[in-house]
Amino acid sequence: VDLDPHEASMIERRQRLLGPAYRLFYERPIEVVRGEGVWLYDRDGKAYLDAYNNVASLGHCHPRVVDAICRQVATLATNTRYLHESVLIYAEQLLATMPSELGHLMFTCTGSDANDLAVRIARSFTGGEGVIVTETAYHGITKIVAEFSPSLGPSVDLGPHVRTVPAPDSYRSPTGDLATEFTVAVEAAIRDLRRHGIKPALFICDSIFSSDGVFGEQPGFLKGAVDAIRAAGGLYIADEVQPGFGRTGDAMWGFQRHGVIPDIVTLGKPMGNGFPVAGIVVRPEVIDEFGRKARYFNTFGGNAVAAEAARAVLSAIQDEDLMRNARMSGAYLKDGIKALAQRHDAIGDVRGAGLFVGVEIVSDRSTRTPDARTCTRIVNGLREAGVLISACGPSANVLKIRPPLVFTTENADFLIERLDRVMMST
Ligand code: PMP
């Protein structure tokens, strides 16, 4: 691609200043300078429909969150070792959205450190080490968590105590009975851990399987796997960093769609609509001993500004009925893309829940052969056409569409029209 001199210079400076570990989106990266609602704007004022950002879940720069952050940062920004009402009010508000078995909220700054803390608690409670995850899962970047985030690729070795199970792939399921297939896989992983003398500590999953390729359908399929890990003395950790805060449309939390109650829930990304705030919610009996032995303090986790941002987010989700919008707009978007599939053979499957939609791009529908090249061309073509999405899945051939929850049916029409146009020319 032809980059203009300004873009080329920014890329060169990034490489020089930030080093080699960072990756940019797109063949022609975008410099975004402003966001509002579902729109992002580049330096020239060109608008892009943001159909990817689940952090700005209420829309970019939501006035209520901006106000809450500004007010609090101008008043006091301090930590959880002082008494402060905000953190307590938020904890009451958040815990009220969870099953009553989950009694405590602890604050972190990122989803990775939420998962790190959850694993430490689970290991302390169970006395086990073993971790079961799906084959292309992502749970974060700390050493402990990267060891069970296979989507990081071969550069990070999975821990010897980690076992992977195939994602519940509704498109390629051999029997069509995902619940049984998934349970059998988790049971086999438990047996394999034991055979190697490793006691299972936990099964962790993101119930929308966002990096595995987006599998949200047939709600309920997780129950057997959760029963299996508990029967083996391990815990079930629900990573709600992706499906949480209303995204899947049917429920505030992804695990609720499966009729299961986790031992620990981990939270992040949309919790502060862009302000860094994350955390875990845990059953009191699970944290009891750990809490008495260990000391937990996280300098920025749960600071007054983070708590106010998170309060504003949760209130807005409820007051603006965003879960309902995720359900309605998500269904509309999915139907629209399914209709496109009649014209474009490359669309093998359209799936997801609420405003989390996966579109499988294949070279041959009868063999369901993944087509990553076409998928990449579509993602880059949409970027040129003013729509931002990405790709996921073990073969990187699934369009990942995950817009802010304020996404309207008009926004969906725009996306569908552009997708149609881009697919016609790829
Ligand atoms: N869990 C899941 C399911 C995620 O998608 C992510 C981030 N992509 C994380 C955990 C880690 O969150 P963070 O980047 O805030 O550390």
From TrEMBL:
Transmembrane region(s) = none
- Give any GO molecular function from the UniProt entry: transaminase activity
Taxonomically, which superkingdom? Bacteria
Name the Pfam families on file: Aminotran_3 (PF00202)
Which InterPro entries does the record cross-reference, listed alphabetically? Aminotrans_3 (IPR005814), Aminotrans_3_PPA_site (IPR049704), PyrdxlP-dep_Trfase (IPR015424), PyrdxlP-dep_Trfase_major (IPR015421), PyrdxlP-dep_Trfase_small (IPR015422)
Q: Which cofactor does it need?
A: pyridoxal 5'-phosphate
Please give the PROSITE patterns that the UniProt record associates with this protein. Answer: AA_TRANSFER_CLASS_3 (PS00600)
UniProt entry keywords in alphabetical sequence: Aminotransferase, Pyridoxal phosphate, Transferase
The record's family statement is:
Belongs to the class-III pyridoxal-phosphate-dependent aminotransferase family.
The protein here is known as Aspartate aminotransferase family protein
State the organism of origin.
Rubellimicrobium aerolatum
